Fold rRNA biogenesis protein RRP36.
Amino acid sequence: RPLEVSSRAPVSAGRERKSSSSMSGSAIITDPRFNDLTGSFNAEGFAKAYSFLNDYRESEKAEMNKEMAKLKKKGKIAEAEGIQAELKRMQSQDVARRRLSLKHEAMKDIRQKQREQVAKTGKMPYFPKQSEVRKRVKDAMLRETAGKGKGAQ
């Protein structure tokens, strides 16, 4: 007889079949991310609930800038470059977050205009092209950066 019983053979009547649910004394562990009872994901609610993290990130970036300046004064260039790389990563994440929020706003705006057209003229709604959405996001980003440039001067 082999040391390990083949899983291909059916379990005989005299032998008990082991499964994860038949383990005695163990509680059933469920992950709320995949459980239907926890509800569906609401991105806007999530953004509102965790908006304080944006302020925290800004203060962390300011602190890192101060630390980088101190390290440069002391001559610790390698450590300062590490902090600078981390700052660059954080800034690119901020840009990506902003671009995503602008995309959501553009889609929301398009859907609202479609609803108005359907209500007024009875026109059939359409799915916007991704190029149209990208163009709106790009325009919004340009307007935002132009506004920042004028305010700085």
Remarks:
- The two ends are 86 Å apart (CA to CA).
- The longest helix spans residues 77-121.
- Residues 71 and 78 are 9 Å apart (CA to CA).
